[in-house]
Amino acid sequence: MSGFAVLLGFLLPKTMLLVDRGYDAHWIGELARRQGVRANIAPKRNRSTRSASARTCVARNLVERFVNKIKQCCRIAIRYDKLAASYLAFVKLASIRICVLIESTAWNSMFPMFFTSDVLRRSFGRLLDHAGLAPQEAAWHSVLKQSDLQLRRYGHDAGTAGAILIVPAPIKRPYIFDLLPQVSVVRRLTEAGFSVYLSDWCEGEGASGDLGASVGSLGIALERIASGHGRAPILIGHSLGGTLAAILAAIEPHRVDKLVLVEAPLRFGEQTGALRSITAYPDSWLSDGSAQSIPGSVLDVASVAAAPEEFSLGRWSDAWASLGDVEALAIHARVIRWSLDEFAPPAALIRNVVDLLYRQDQFARNELRLFGRVAGAASLAEIPVAAIVDHTSRVAPPASTLEPLRNPTVFSYEPEIGVGLQHVGPLVGRRAHREIWPRVIEWMRGAHRQS
Fold first, then answer.
1. Phi, psi for residue 279 in degrees, rounded to 5
2. Measured CA distances, 358 to 83, 173, 405 (Å)
3. 62 and 166 both lie in a single domain
4. Is position 177 within any domain?
5. The dihedral of CA 302, 303, 304, 305: what is its sign?
6. Collapsed DSSP state (helix, strand, coil) of residue 285
7. How far apart are CA 386 and CA 234, in angstroms?
8. pLDDT by residue (tens digit) across 392-447?
9. What does the alpha-carbon distance between residue 233 and residue 162 come to, in Å, rounded to a whole number?
10. Beta strands in 115-262 (DSSP E)
11. Which of 135, 143, 326 is nearest to 227 (CA)?
């Protein structure tokens, strides 16, 4: 104990000596009292005369556990650094690392809760189905199955106007393109004589691909369609699905006849809009490192936090405005039911989208590389491109879609009631189907590129 007595001599008056019961000795308490130091020593079990503050002992235990944690860093435990300032700097770095790991663990420990939320939301959606709010989809059959998507074919007759591949966003169910007969993009296209295909993204253990794998699967589907029809198909993509379609078209422009982007962002950075705040989140919020997919509820929470006027307040105001219109209310209710049908996309894909696109803006900068080739927006100049944009949107600002394109054909969507979410308004809006899609179909029927 002689060494401890030396250390005790450095304590100043009116300070506290805080140690565990291993130091419960009469001479230590007496030495502390003579120096004017308050001794808070956890008493041994056989001592009845000395008491200690339990709350202060808990604080001591917290400090001891912290010291134990930072000593797991070899540089601190062995003390390579000779200078106190250098040593203190690495103690601070170790402390920051511990804080980051604790924050990450606290968030990722909530992942099971979000997956449970997905199950509950889907269950509520099925209840709405029984209440008569189920989507009324057209008949389709699968013509190609891959690990991360299956290719739907609507109808059996070969369309005379050519083939179309619809690419929905890989974060929600695809039947938003075929919600009700009167507001179905799929039916509008089949009625116009097109052979309609749709990429139905899969979830689960098999669907764990990153951005390259997802675009590659789309490329396989595109090749399957082209070989069956003898010419390149038209690509239509909504939201993030439009972004993936544009990346595929940029990599292989000769395999795409035309490209139609619906509220699809291409340039990010300052043009990201309301969702730009997602780039400020640490990578750990997207996955716990072991999960292959991200709960759909996590993306819902992030979307509501980034754009509450669209994903929260907007749906309520649309419901209120639709009360006097039975048809508008029916469409609104089914869009809300669709939003409950949670989809868990691959974690690797979402991490790539946030990092390579949202943060680094590699596609618009012509710096994105997939399959050993550059996938840049500049390559889209070789393809006729049409864009449906909402000039009031903060989720997919028009500049995000139009700036990277060269002379696109632009169709303006005006917000309307009865769409639930204005971001899907171009797909389910009644005015959009009366005024926009007939013009888009006419544009698609125009001169085709030479194969």
1. -70, -15
2. 42, 23, 18
3. no
4. yes
5. positive
6. helix
7. 11
8. 998 899 999 999 999 999 999 999 999 999 999 999 999 999 999 999 999 999 87
9. 7
10. 140-145, 149-154, 162-167, 194-201, 234-238, 259-262
11. 143
What sign for the dihedral angle of Cα 179, 182, 185, 189?
positive
- Residue 117 has a pLDDT of 83
**In a 10 Å sphere around its CB, with 0-12 CB exposed, 13-18 middle and 19+ buried, how is residue 310 labelled?**
buried
Average of pLDDT values for 207-216?
85
368 touches 242 (CB < 8 A): no
Sequence letter at residue 23: Y
**Residue 215 · residue 244 · CB < 8 Å:** yes
Q: How many CB atoms lie within 10 A of CB 271?
A: 20
Nearest residue to 111 via CA among 234, 381, 292, 377 = 292
SS (H, E, C) 5-66: HHHHCCCCCCCEEEECHHHCCHHHHHHHHHCCCEEEECCCCCCCCCCCCHHHHHHHHHHHHH
- The rounded distance, in Å, linking the Cα atoms of 108 and 106 is 6
Quote the CA–CA distance of 288 and 113 in Å, as a whole number. 13
Rounded CA separation 381/83 (Å): 60
Query: Strand, coil or helix: what is 80?
Result: coil
Q: Which residue has the tokens 């179905």?
A: 184
Give the structural domain span for 432.
123-445
Between β-strands 234-238 and 162-167, what pairing exists: parallel, antiparallel or unpaired?
A: parallel
CB 15 within 8 A of CB 39: no
- Minimal CA–CA distance to 177: which of 273, 256, 118, 260? 260
Q: Are 234 and 365 in contact (CB under 8 A)?
A: no
Exposed / middle / buried, residue 106 (Cβ in 10 Å: 0-12, 13-18, 19+): exposed
Residue 164 has pLDDT above 80, yes or no: yes
116 belongs to a structural domain: no
Q: What is the pTM of this model?
A: 0.75
Q: Are residues 37 and 147 in the same domain?
A: no
Please list the alpha-helical segments (H only) found in 230-325.
240-251, 296-306, 308-311, 313-322
Could you give the number of structural domains in the chain? 3
> Cα 290 from chain centroid?
16
Two structure tokens written together for 184: 């179905």
Give residue for tokens 């809760």: 113
Give the max Cα distance, the chain: 101
- Do 93 and 168 sit in the same domain of this protein? no
